[in-house]
Every structure is written in C-alpha cells, then in structure tokens.
Specification:
Blueprint lengths: L1 H5 L8 H10 L13 H4 L3 E2 L6 E3 H5 L4 H15 L1 E5 L5 H16 L2 H5 L11 E3 L14 E8 L16 H26 L6 H4 L7 E8 L11 E4 L5 E6 L6 E5 L2 E4 L7 E5 L1 H6 L9 E3 L7 E8 L6 E2 L17 E2 H9 L16
Parallel strand pairs: 1-10, 2-3
Antiparallel strand pairs: 3-11, 4-5, 5-6, 6-13, 7-12, 8-11, 8-13, 9-10, 9-12, 14-15
Helix pairs in contact: 5-8, 6-8
The chain binds N-oxalylglycine and nickel (II) ion (NI).
The site of nickel (II) ion has 3 residues, from loops.
Keywords: Iron, Metal-binding, Oxidoreductase
Protein name: Fe2OG dioxygenase domain-containing protein
Family: Belongs to the iron/ascorbate-dependent oxidoreductase family.
Length: 357
C-alpha cells in the first residue's frame, strides 16, 4: 500500500539493546530523549476497570444475536474498545503466531536488522515509526511492521526466515483474523441500522491489512518512560493480541487512563479513526497508550484493518440524511494516512480532529 511506503521515521537507537545495557549496569541512566515530563508520568491511572466483553458466538447464534448486538453497540459507542471472546480463531493458530513473534524478538540484533526498515520502503520492517524530529521524545519500544493484505502487496524481504515457521504462522493468523473482522463489520453495519450493510462492507473491499508487532523492553525506570505515546489508530479497526500476559495497554475514558488487563483467550478490538468517520461519530476511536514494566518485557501485536488508499473517506451517506449533518470532512484515504504518519503521536486531537467539522 502506497501510504505504508510514504511513511518515514528518523533512525533512533534500538531500545531492546539499550535496555540490556541499562539493566546490566548500575548507575546508567535512561537517555534524556526517552524521559517524559513529570506531568505525563503523574497522570492518574485507574486499574481494575474491565472493558466490555463481546461474544462473537452469541452474535452468530440467532437466539442471542439481538441481545449481543446491543452489547456490541454499547462497546463501540461508549468505549471504542472491547474484549472479543468466542472469536472462533483456532487456538493453535494464535499460539503459533505468539510463539514465532516472540521468538523473532529474541534473535540477536544483527539477525533482526536483516529485516530493518529501508529508506525506499517506508515503515515496513524492523525499526520505528512516528519519529519526525531530532528533539521529540521517544517511545520505549521497537516495532516490526508488515503489510499483510492484499497478499500481492507483501514484500517478502521483510518477512523473517527465522524462526522458520514465522511466515506461515503470521499468514494463517492473518487469514483467521480477516474472517473475524469481516464478521464484525457485518454486525456493526446492522447495529448502525444501515438498510444496505454493503455500503459499509464495500469500503473495506479487498480487506487491506497491516501488522505491527511491538516489543517493549523492561525499563529500570519504567515510571519515567512511555512504551507507546498516546494516539488513536488511523485504521478501520484493530485486533490486538497480547503475545505475553504483561499488562501495559491503557485507554482514555472520561479523562482518565484505564489499564486494560490481558484476558486469556480474548482479542482486544478497538474502533479506529476510519470507522469513527464512516459512522459519523456513532462509534468512537479512543486514545490509548502503552506503558512498560520494570522487570518484564511486553510484546503485543496489532492487526490494523484498513481501507484501500484511493477510498474517499467520509461519513456513510445513509447516516447523514436530513438533520444528521456530516461531522467530518471528506478526504482521500491515502492523504489521511500521509497526514497521520507525518506527525508525531500526540493524542487523538492531532490527527482525527483535523478532519472534524
Ligand atoms: C498500537 C497499539 C497497544 C499495545 O500498536 O497501535 O496501540 O498494547 N498497541 O501494544
Ligand atoms: Ni494503537
């Protein structure tokens, strides 16, 4: 996809290697570029507050579908995030993807660098994203980004040959996740009350999909750094897999950060900016961030469900009839993504609100 190639990020230190030197020596400080202001570090965090749970099995069962649809609507309108259970993805597919992604990050730095981002290929590969100036604060993580779909867009130079099953595991995971996404989009179209659900589904035709696996090394001064800066996702929806069970994801709810606990067997689903726009604000794309742990690494993998680059992104015409005015300006998706990748992550206002009317 063109936009993944237009995104650029300035080179920065490898955080995993940096963390190893800090953790191994006494007295070494976290470099200033990673240290956040006291205000950021002091923001209130609420724990023990569970996300809504959506049960795909109940959505698919005609006896419980209507009730569960209301549940889905509540989650998408009030939280923009939910835990998806009974998603039907084979356990083995999930375990294989987790194992191989985790194993990739254990390879020696030089082996991982064989898949490093290349100047002409934008964000694909091992490295960073959203670093646009020498002075901005940096996230305490390393990222690995791949275009998964359409399959002909895959650039196999970036697909690790180590571990040997990585490619097939990620391919199978993507195929299963795509089924889940398609199914959720259908139910969302119904929940939005669309007379023609196809109008929503056709925006996602071809189901372009990217993956970002993120490695958050432990940090001796975990409270001073941020794993992933606050942002909203620029895609349609995101499926987030906790590759290990270390907590770190936080979402903004009623002005406070809410810590999301990994839930065994569930996928975390969130609404992205594109679905917020398509739904004319009925569904919300919520600001979130990731923190790091003092002594344990954290690994997560996000699958971003995209729309094709030449899509004219705007609220669905069926939802802006009569007194319901469009709340977002129209924009070609490719331009929308260029704007997203050209700025540092700075909460959701910096991007989505740019298109608000
Ligand atoms: C992302 C993201 C959260 C996490 O990659 O966009 O929000 O917990 N990840 O790693
Ligand atoms: Ni995100």
């Amino acid at each position: 996809m063109a936009y993944a190639k237009t995104g650029r990020s300035l080179p920065v230190p490898n955080v995993q290697a940096l963390a190893q030197t800090l953790n191994g020596s006494s007295g070494e400080q976290v470099p200033e570029r990673f240290v956040r202001t006291e205000e950021v570090c002091a923001e209130e965090v609420v724990s023990g507050c569970a996300l809504p749970i959506v049960d795909l099995g109940r959505l698919l069962d005609p006896r419980s579908s209507e009730e569960e649809l209301a549940n889905l609507g509540f989650a998408c309108q009030e939280w923009g995030f939910f835990q998806l259970i009974n998603h039907g993805m084979p356990e083995e597919v999930i375990q294989d993807a987790k194992r191989d992604i985790a194993e990739f990050f254990t390879l020696p730095l030089e082996a991982k660098k064989a898949y490093a981002q290349l100047p002409e290929s934008g964000l694909q590969g091992y490295g960073q994203a959203f670093v646009v100036s020498e002075t901005q604060k940096l996230d305490w993580c390393d990222r690995f980004f791949l275009i998964l779909r359409p399959t002909e867009s895959r650039d196999m130079r970036f697909w690790p040959a180590q571990p040997p099953s990585f490619r097939s595991s990620v391919d199978r995971y993507s195929a299963e996740a795509t089924k889940v996404v398609w199914c959720l989009l259908r139910f969302m179209a119904t929940e939005m009350g669309l007379e023609e659900p196809e109008r929503l589904l056709e925006v996602f035709e071809g189901l372009p999909q990217n993956m970002r696996a993120t490695y958050y090394p432990p940090c001796v001064e975990a409270g001073k750094v941020i794993g992933l800066s606050p942002h909203s996702d620029a895609c349609g929806m995101t499926l987030l897999l906790h590759v290990n069970d270390v907590q770190g994801l936080q979402i903004k709810k009623d002005g406070k950060w809410v810590a999301v606990e990994p839930m065994n067997g569930a996928l975390v689903v969130n609404i992205g900016d594109v679905l917020e726009i398509l739904s004319n604000g009925r569904y919300i794309s919520v600001e979130h961030r990731a923190t790091v742990h003092q002594s344990r690494e954290r690994i997560s993998t996000a699958l971003f469900q995209q729309v094709s680059p030449d899509t004219m992104l705007r609220p669905l015409p069926e939802l802006v009839k009569g007194s319901n005015k469009a709340r977002y300006r129209s924009v070609i998706h490719e331009d929308f993504m260029k704007h997203y990748f050209s700025t540092k992550l700075d909460g959701r206002r910096s991007h989505l609100d740019h298109y608000k009317i």
